[in-house]
Amino acid sequence: MTTRDIVLTALFTAIMIVLGLMPPVTLGFIPVPITAQSLGVMLAGGILGARRGAAAIALLLLLVAIGLPVLSGGRGGLGVFAGPTAGYLVGWVAGAYVCGLIAERFVREGQNEIAQLAAFVGAAFIGGIVVVYLFGLAWLSYMSGNAFLPAVVASAAFLPGDLIKVAIAALAGRAVLAGYPLLPHRA
Amino acid sequence: MLNGLDIEGDSLLHRLPVRLKLALLFAAAILLFLTSDLRFLLPALSLALVLLLSTGLGPREAFRRVRFVLFTVLLVALANFLFVSAAEGAAVFCRLAALVLLAAAVTATTGISAFMDEITRLLLPFERLGLVRAADVSLAVGLVIRFVPEILARYGEIAAAHKARGLPVRPLTLLIPLIILTLKDADTIAMAIDARGFRRH
Chain A contact for B90, CB < 8 A? Predict the structure, then answer.
């Protein structure tokens, strides 16, 4: 990584922390409040690309581990890695990487609007939802022992909010690509 | 702006070296998962609670820190209670809650810089493999702590600009300028770092 890559990674981590300070949004038809921070996972991959995106999330988790309260709601410390939902956090790193890989491969600068948007939606959905849930549910099932199925059903409450985040991440990814393209010059 | 979760003190945990605390936490995590026997798990939970409170963290602050994770632990334990058995539910709660409290105790007694030093040392084997440079990780951590207040101020400015123009503050119209304006600074910052020769090869 060049110095610029390190700076981009660190600045994105700082943006993630600021997103965590934003109050969660409650929508009537969704059972759980939506936090902006997990949106950052999809944005990291879609804007910075696979390597820098995953590094930005890993850096955030490092700050959490050394005891800075930088997760949404002022959470932090080693305790969050000991809980049953720690798998989602680890899944963030892999999710950002996969999201970045897909965006790097399928998003082109001169593409028509619909194709570009579709590529961003696909990247955010597969990286930010499929991969993150895969890690999250695997860990949850390990931690919850024999009560795996109810745990899976309960986590479905987060799905509608995450789908809204995919839409926001895709639109934001496209806008940033137009305003300040970083994806084509990846690390 | 960004304050650590560690607190001043001179308890036993404060005096233990960071590496030993992390190793003990890791060992506790493995031990707790080996058994479902409440005769072992209940004392373990009590011991974890005693350790957390021995750090000098007040009960109220201690609860505030762990309540979110404890809530998820409670949900998982409740699922086990309802769908498996009462004993299993109690075992899951004691095991996970003990682990969370122990982790919180380590966090409360370990300063950011001491922890970062240990991380740098733990990264050295990876540096020898050519995977990551420990100095780069420290640089990145420093940059994040330096730039969070600046980005937060910029967030406030963009929100104020929205209000001045009578626009509703929406996530999308706020995020895009925030990200572009912030990332555009990367070139200047990187040049300033290189000009000072921080990353000699």
Answer: no
| Among B150, B176, B183, beta carbon nearest to A172 | B176
Predicted confidence (pLDDT) at residue A186 exceeds the cutoff of 80: no
Nearest to A66 among B76, B116, B152 (CB): B116
A118/chain B closest Cα distance in angstroms: 18
Q: What is the pLDDT of residues B122-171, one digit of tens each?
A: 888 888 888 888 889 989 999 999 899 999 999 999 999 999 999 988 88
Query: What is the complex's ipTM, to 2 decimals?
Result: 0.90
pLDDT averaged over chain A? 89
Query: Alpha helices, DSSP H only, in chain A?
Result: 3-21, 39-48, 50-65, 79-82, 86-106, 113-125, 132-143, 148-155, 159-179
Residue bearing tokens 């420093």: B142
Q: Tens digit of pLDDT for each residue in A82-93? A: 888 899 999 999
Q: Do B175 and A43 touch (CB under 8 A)?
A: yes
CB-based contact A3 B194, cutoff 8 Å: yes
Rounded distance, CA A47 to CA A123, Å?
A: 11
Report the residue of chain A nearest B113, measured CA to CA.
A66
B14, B105 contact by CB (below 8 A)? no
Fold assignment, A3-185: Arp2/3 complex 21 kDa subunit ARPC3 (1.10.1760)
The verdict on a CB contact (< 8 Å) between A143 and B180 is no
Please give the residue of chain B at the shortest CA–CA distance from A62.
B141
Q: What digits encode the pLDDT tens for the residues A27-60?
A: 767 667 778 888 999 999 999 999 999 999 999 9
Asked if the C-beta of B161 comes within 8 angstroms of chain A's C-beta atoms, the answer is no
CA-only gyration radius of chain A, Å: 16
Helix (H) or strand (E) holding B91: helix B86-108
